[in-house]
Design a protein that fits this description.
single chain; 682 residues; alpha+beta; Rossmann fold; Dna Ligase, domain 1; D-amino Acid Aminotransferase, Chain A, domain 1; 5 domains; eight-stranded antiparallel beta sheet; eight-stranded antiparallel barrel; 32% strand; globular; nucleotide-binding; Biotin_COase_C; metal ion binding; ligase; lipid degradation
């Protein structure tokens, strides 16, 4: 067994590998770019080596620097994590040539299966069902259009070396095929150093289901059941679960056996994933094979009780798999939510900056102890006070729960999301909460088009209707009374002028455009010393109790005998006197006033925000890679104005209406802050 390994990656996956290595008594070496000098994975590892500047092409994609770091520290093996060099055939071969074990498949397997064109040809030869398409590299956008028309729209344009949603577009017409080819090629070149593109038929209303496989150097290959990955936004996974609520035992077995046959055809060693698209009649087609550990591997670990990272390390050290197919378990139900640094209310634009607060829900399951179950696990590479840099992907953490069945897992996940406190940057937690509450998700009736179909106009607060909105009002009144009760107990108050707590309040829920809602509320304490109060709103009464202290954002307690977790903080929004209440994805800002104060507040004029329609503002922090217009140029609605690169993705800004460009304020190559002016219209 190895005594020291190097992790050629960053973020949560680097921390994940370190956890298992530590359990196995193996020393670890982290590598880091200038942007990651203070990163969590650097702090956790036994040693750390700088490998270059912040951009990944100048650090994490430099094989020479990583090999040099391994030699410098005496690391006997390298775990590549996912992304970066994890599916790079040349890097795997280089490790082998340098006498360093690659904790992943052999270079020949990566060449055969990591390349989407080659893997599809191999799947055809192995008589695995494949989707119709053009499997050779395409020379240019004109040829892409001709091929797409021959296959029949819609088509999927994919980078051969792509992954994680990068280098992928769906085209429904010639124009989209032409433009999609160019965008895919640019993203693939920048992210993977390989700009080969291919096209295949896009199966409408499909489900994305993948099979986890595991092989060793002794010819053993098994499959570890499936993962349901159909909840995707722009082809990037948002929620994953295991098992799938859709496929039958017979389909599971057939898919698993095909995945194993494919892996055996290339003498596959290590963990890998065979991805399938599954039709409504459970007919399935091979999509691709990921020759690495998947982001969503924890849900498989939860239902099987296996530590996949440990098995990868043992296989790389030459050990045989310690289990057969008959030993593979399927215990309970696991769900994973990807918590990303993006603002769902601003079309999911990237959000970078400092994590002013980062308080995940309490963990009861852990990365390197897969024996624990029926709980909550958090995989993350960040910490409170740390930075989310603009150079890498947007993932903050992976939130994983394990339940006795699917309903139990959904319930656990909703509670865990309620207790996940992130401040300083925006996150997609409200969107995740909305998905988990959606009737079609709860029933298991969804496909890869679920998000596009249900949130075609983007995501807004109205998309997360609370099942009991008066509870939020009641909680605001309850917490406000707790704050006032604490103030009333402060010694040294002037006699006759002490703070009076009171029982009658008006909760003013602040609405956009000054459209506020007033609710008269009474709050009466019980005399049983339980710390609970009866809160009456309209014709409903809520008995609420909580031990939450002043300034504590996460509030846990009971309401009418049922447990709840919510987030409450004062002055978090635009009004410094208001309470912000968040629960089950719904958020309100409310002022809790005396009846007189509420009447006076109604007389306050509403100040409308300034009109910024004359300006093109940067919707995110990022690099301005192109300004597509000139001063004096007439533009039409929908015309491209600028391109911003953030978190490895190109974001194109289009004109919202017809107009004439007046002044270009920001220059190409400039690093932009959120809401920074790029150009001004006349």
């Amino acid at each position: 067994m190895f005594t020291k390994i190097l992790i050629a990656n960053r973020g949560e996956i680097a921390c994940r590998v370190i956890a298992t290595a530590r359990k196995m008594g193996i020393a670890t070496v982290a590598v880091y770019s200038d942007a990651d000098k203070e990163a969590r994975h650097v702090k956790l590892a036994d040693e750390a080596v700088r490998i270059g500047a912040a951009p990944s092409r100048e650090s994490y994609l430099l094989a020479d620097n990583i090999i040099a770091a391994a030699k410098q520290t005496g690391a006997q093996a390298i775990h590549p994590g996912y992304g970066f060099l994890s599916e790079n055939e040349a890097f795997a071969q280089r490790c082998e040539d340098e006498g360093i074990a690659f904790i992943g498949p052999k270079a020949h397997s990566i060449a055969a299966m990591g390349d989407k064109i080659a893997s599809k040809k191999l799947a055809n030869e192995a008589k695995v069902n494949t989707i119709p398409g053009y499997n050779d590299a395409i020379s240019g956008p004109e040829q892409a259009v001709e091929i797409a028309k021959g296959i029949g729209y819609p088509v999927m344009i994919k980078a051969s070396a792509g992954g994680g949603g990068k280098g992928l577009r769906v085209a429904f017409n010639d124009k989209e095929a032409f433009e999609g080819f160019a965008s895919c090629q640019n993203e693939a070149r920048n992210s993977f150093g390989d700009d080969r593109i291919f096209i295949e038929k896009f199966v409408q209303q499909p489900r994305h289901i993948e099979i986890q496989v595991l092989g060793d150097s002794h010819g053993n290959v098994i499959y570890l059941n499936e993962r349901e990955c159909s909840i995707q936004r722009r082809h990037q996974k948002v929620i994953e679960e295991a098992p799938s609520p859709f496929i039958s035992d017979a389909t599971r077995k057939a898919m698993g056996e095909q995945a194993v046959a494919l892996a055996k055809a290339v003498k596959y060693q290590s963990a890998g994933t065979v991805e399938f698209v599954v039709g409504k009649d459970q007919d399935f087609y091979f999509l691709e094979m990921n020759t690495r550990l998947q982001v969503e591997h924890p849900v498989t670990e939860c239902i099987t009780g296996l530590d996949l990272v440990e098995l990868m390390i043992r296989v790389a050290a030459g050990e045989a798999l310690p289990l057969t197919q008959a030993d593979v378990k399927r215990d309970g139900w696991a769900i994973e939510c990807r918590i990303n640094a993006e603002d769902p209310f601003r079309n999911f634009l990237p959000s970078t900056g400092r994590l002013v607060r980062f308080q995940p829900p309490e963990e009861t399951m852990f990365q390197s102890d897969t024996a624990k179950k029926l709980g909550v696990r958090v995989d993350t590479g960040v910490y409170e006070g740390g930075e989310i840099p603009m150079y890498y992907d947007s993932m903050i953490a992976k939130l994983i729960v394990h339940g006795s069945d699917r309903d139990d897992a959904i319930h656990k996940m909703r509670a865990a999301l309620n207790g996940f406190v992130i401040r300083g940057i925006s996150s997609n937690i409200p969107f995740q909460a909305a998905l988990l509450a959606h009737p079609r998700f709860v029933s298991g009736d969804f496909n890869t088009g679920f998000i596009a179909e249900n949130y075609s106009q983007g995501f807004a607060a109205e998309d997360v209707p609370h099942e009991d909105p008066l509870f939020l009002v009641a909680l605001a009144a309850y917490m406000n009374r707790r704050y006032r009760a604490r103030a009333s107990g402060i010694s040294g108050q002037l006699a006759g002028h002490e703070v009076k707590v009171g029982e009658q309040f008006v909760v003013v829920t602040l609405g956009a455009g000054g459209q506020n809602v007033h609710n008269a509320v009474s709050v009466t304490d019980f005399e049983d010393l339980s710390g609970s109060s009866a809160v009456t709103v309209q014709d409903r009464t809520y008995r609420i109790s909580s031990s939450a202290t002043l300034g504590q954002v996460r509030v846990q307690g009971q309401c009418n005998g049922l447990g709840f977790t919510a987030q409450v903080e004062r002055g978090a929004g635009k009004n410094p006197l208001a309470l912000r209440i968040a629960h089950n994805g719904t958020q309100i800002e409310a002022m809790v006033l005396s009846p007189l104060g509420a009447r006076l507040h109604e007389l306050m004029p509403f100040k409308a925000p300034p009109d910024l329609s004359r300006f093109l503002l940067s919707p995110m922090p990022g690099l301005l890679v192109d300004v597509a217009v000139q001063p004096g140029q007439k533009v039409q609605a929908g015309e491209k104005l600028a391109v911003i690169e953030a978190m490895k993705m190109e974001n194109i800004l289009f004109a919202a209406q017809d107009g004439v460009v007046g002044k270009i304020v920001a220059g190409k190559g400039e690093s932009l802050a959120v809401d920074q002016v790029i150009l001004e219209f006349q």
